[in-house]
Amino acid sequence: MAAEVSAAAAVVGAVSQVKTTIFDPLRETISNLKKLEEVHEALQDAIVSLVSRREEHESLVQKHRATKMPSKPYIAWAGKVQRIEQKVKSFDTKYGIEVKKPLYRSFLSRSKLSEKMKEKALEIIPLLNEGSQFGSRFESMLVDKQPEHVVKMAPPDIKNFPALQRPLEQILDLLTKDRVKGIRVHGALGTGKTTMMQNLNDHSQVSEAFEIVIWLKVSTEGNKGNISNPELQRAIARRLILHIEGSNHVDEVAERIRDSLKDKKYLLLLDDVKQDLDLHQIGIPENQGSKIVLTTTIGHVCNSMVEEVIKVGKFSEDEALNMFQNVLNFPNLRDNPHIERFLRKVVQLYDFHPLRIKLAATAFKLRGPGKEWWKEGFKDLIKWSRKGDHPMKKMYDLLQDSCDNLNDAQKNCFLYGTLYPEGTDIYEDCLLDCWSAQDFIGGDDDVDEILRHLKMVSLLEEGALKRHVRMEKWMREAALFILSTNVGCKYLVKTSETLQEPPLLAHWKDKEGISLADNDLNRLPDRPDCLVLSTLFLQRNPNLIQIPASFFECMGKLRVLNLYRTGIVSLPTSLSNLICLKVLYLNGCSGLVSLPPQIGELEHLEVLHFRGSRVSCLPPQIRSLIHLRRLSLSVTSSSGGEINPEDCVFPYSEISRLPKLEELFIDIKCRDRNKMLSSVITNTATMEKLKIFRLCFLDEAEVVIEVVAATPKIPVPREANLITFLGKIDETLYCDKFQVFIDCEISNPQIPKPYRYNRFVRYCNGKWRDPPISNILDKADAVELFNSEEQFLSDFETDGMDQVQHCLLESCKNIRSIVDGYMNCSILGNLEHLYMKDLPKLESIWMGPMNGQLQSLSKLKTLVLIKCPKLIMTLSHGVIQQLSEIRHLEIRECCGTEDIISGPSSAGLDPGVLPKLKKLVLHDMPNLERICPDKSLEWPSLEKLEIRRCPNVNEVPFTKSNAMKLISIEVDRCWWERLNWQELQVKERLSKLLPPVTFSFSHDSHELGKRHLARYMCGLVAMLMLALLINFS
């Protein structure tokens, strides 16, 4: 009998397309067994066959484990097999006990055990059936392996490092914003961007929000750009477990990737991006809810795909100390005051830079924990920082890689920054002057672009002051190390070393750049051999009083000379040898009282600064400086004190004869600014090339005129300065074109299409009754007013601002209306565009009677009102008649507005009003009830209507015969369906103008749909199986 069972099981295993009826003989055979021994043997044979089947399948699973994974039905089947195998083993134990008992004593228990083993054997039959089906249908047992939801990276914990934790929290917050699709994380080399991104990858909030997180290393160390698109595609395919071995074309692979990510909400983490990426070409789809975060040292990379930028900087002192302690793995290290003192020195030495501190701490780790250990270790670190030995060599290698990615001009400009003392904030204009003066700048090189690029790649950082940059301490040390390893090193840099004596003459020879800045030099050598010297920095040596007469004799190629804040009292006659000099800084030389006649022989000089000196007059030879572009000077008395305007002898004739002068900065030590401004501005107004003109008075108030594309831009800190300026300046300077910024910085106008307007005024935080303010407003054709204090725009004491065509009012807390009807003169008769935003007290456009001001607002084409909560009605009957030219009417977030066109009915209102209105926009007004009291208006030109989130509007003012030019309607669908329609024909006509309905499903509804589909498919499969079984039977 057992042989029959085994044979039947073998038959079952050999069948490829199994039918339930095949098992009937086996089931019947097992059911008819009587003896315990036969039942046990049959059970053993059945379980052996089942386990063998499972092992065959498991062998197949292991063979394909790299690309395939067991299907859910197979996993369920294997689980059942395992459970039944364990149960059969328990029966073996019980069977062993029963067969040892005398038959007469175990008859009942043997019978009971036999029945249970029969039941278990019968349970094996359908499992054998199911297992055979897996063998014949490979795809039912193994499916494509699914990528992990998140590949954990187990990075270091950054919770105790706010410099990294804060950016991480910012990113997590931004990932919840629908408007943000891409985030760029920008920072210098070694600041921890990758570590922070790894923490983002592993964060629970990320795993909960996204279906899959994909990490890509976009570039490799030492390369200028990203790895190739095919390499990126292969990395993505590995992450998604796609088989692309036979796909050789990038477009084919991209389609595979796109199909794999279809409908998935993904987070793409791109580490170390060095160039712009075309994600579409790679195959990354733009799925709803998906996000991209990238890290880079280049500030402008991938601008088109990011909405937010986050900066990662260096550590604070406490963070640096914590990192050092963590690397050493000495938890109580800082409890020792002696060691903590050394620790602070170490982290300061390495400028709180995360990677440098980590490397230094690693080097310390092999030493013992004693006090002497710290002393010796600190000495070693100082030596390493100077010589570039271990452990800082890696930092220098990183910087060398960055330098290798620069072109020659960019690299030379970067290395030029090492001439400035450590920690110096460098004024950008001065740096650009110095770069431009050098031989290494070619004719096609743009120094502004070079500066922008060096900042973008984090080789130069923003300084503490506006328009200043600095080179980070470690960056400068690494750059000096690179220069020192160069056999042809051309720089001599000894800054901030309290030097009193200059370097030996031999050290000056063959140098292209020498910097002895920030020292205590009291003398300079006679006639140093500097035939190739291009730059000489001697700034901030206050004890340097005298320059030897022959000092400049062998410096014929010198292009930049910086003597800022030295103690010199005169310049030697050998200055005439500097025939190539382009930049000369004498500013802050308070002991200098005159310029020598030899200044005129510097015919290539482009930049001359002696502001803050006591030079009271210019030699006539200054006229020979025909290439001078920038000049700064002080107008002082011979004693250096305040001057009397009547006694001032200003060198107008000399300055006005400088044909290429573009920037002029005059520091005037005089309290009577009115007279000085009148004199200075009048005498310099004829200089055609002048683009930027700064005047600084004794009280440090500064008036700036900046001419850009022939338009003077004038930022004025206070109204009094403008009063003086407007009262004295020649009208020809500003009448045709000007931009005036009162109590605010120069910036681009906020008005749309500002290029249309030649005379622009932005006025902040002031009262506009002062005559000079009114005068300039009368000449302006575009005006922006912020934080004004008046109640009516018509409160200007002007001629009506008839030139103004565009006006923006924002955050004017007291303004109640634009036009005061009780005034007898018209205002803003040529105004075409009026924008009003954040006006908390605005009650109306026009307040009072209409008589006497028939021209006011008569040409208005655009009216936009945003966040005016007290505006109950927008257009009264009188105002609507006045606005016959209006084409665009837009009202948003005016929570108090109840009517657009006021009145209980439109009786007496011409149906043809608003004849040119083309667009009407109404958004976010919860109390709005009516657009128009009735439907008599013709709306003859209306083409576009937008109404959003205005729930209390119950009808629209349209009939079968009006608004016949409407071509577009954008509304909330639910609101549209709730409207009261007296004529269904009107609804049908207008509904055709709505955009087509689109459906968007949430993730939950999408999953629900998939479950319904799965149930439907299961039912369909069951019906097909039933049909097949019926056919076979």
From TrEMBL:
GO biological process: defense response
Record's keyword terms, sorted: Coiled coil, Membrane, Plant defense, Repeat, Transmembrane, Transmembrane helix
Listed transmembrane segments: 1013-1032
Domain called Disease resistance protein At4g27190-like leucine-rich repeats: residue spans: 831-974
Segments forming domain Disease resistance R13L4/SHOC-2-like LRR: 518-693
Coiled coil location: 26-53
GO MF annotation, one: ADP binding
Domain NB-ARC: 166-327
Family assignment from sequence similarity: Belongs to the disease resistance NB-LRR family.
Protein name: NB-ARC domain-containing protein
Originating species: Escallonia herrerae
Biological classification of the source: Eukaryota, Viridiplantae, Streptophyta, Embryophyta, Tracheophyta
